[in-house]
Specification:
Blueprint: E1 4-17, E2 36-49, E3 54-60, H1 65-79, E4 86-90, H2 98-104, H3 107-114, E5 117-121, H4 131-142, H5 151-167, H6 178-184
Parallel strand pairs: 1-4, 4-5
Antiparallel strand pairs: 1-2, 2-3
Length: 194
């Protein structure tokens, strides 16, 4: 009833081929030219619940406050409609503010969505503590590492990856302990002179 969900986003360049690749043949790998055509950028929002092995991905044309607010509402209403409170771990990016919800929705709706969440922000220069970054890395390596020309194709590829990965219920075995944090992040903890 109180899931811990990690959220992050990442840009993805849309790239096209400038030359037709030479197909694979017996004893020879497929040959692609290094030159490409830049066709724009899309944004990848990813949320995952590490302990349940669940993740959801949304690809948008931009990365602004409105896009973030719509993704947050989707997390609350579509993926966790019965949760009492959703703890959302994310970095301190400028769009990750309660005000973004008020810019997108009427005040009553924005407050309703906000009341569903407890926001936990990773420390500055410590966004790697957000396990959604791990999942984004897996997504990029397994699904988006090739040239993708259109946002529609990116959505189709990501949808297939998400369905397969959720089918395996791949959990994250996070081994960074509080003791390790106190050593590695020593400067973030208060010190007292005696």
């Amino acid at each position: 009833m109180r899931p811990v969900v990690c959220m992050d986003e990442s840009p993805k360049q849309l790239l096209g081929e400038t030359r037709v690749a030479i197909p694979m043949s017996k004893g020879h790998a497929r040959k692609c030219d290094y030159e490409y055509e830049r066709l724009g950028v899309c944004n990848i929002f990813l949320a995952n619940e590490p302990l349940a092995g669940f993740r959801t991905v949304k690809i948008t044309e931009s990365k602004c406050k409105v896009d973030w607010a719509e993704f947050i509402k989707e997390i609350a209403d579509e993926h966790y409609p019965k949760a009492e409170l959703i703890t959302l771990v994310m970095d301190n990016f400028g769009t990750h503010t309660p005000g973004a919800l008020y810019e997108r929705y009427e005040p009553e709706e924005a407050k309703r969505i906000l009341d569903r969440f407890e926001f936990v922000f990773t420390p500055k220069h410590g966004s790697w503590l957000d396990m959604a970054e791990i999942e984004l890395n897996v997504l990029n390596n397994q699904c988006l590492g090739c040239r993708i020309e259109t946002i529609e194709k990116a959505r189709k590829e990501v949808q297939a990856w998400e369905k397969a990965r959720n089918g395996f219920t791949k959990k994250i075995n996070w081994q960074f302990t509080t003791e390790k944090a106190r050593i590695k992040l020593k400067k973030l903890y208060p010190s007292y002179d005696r």
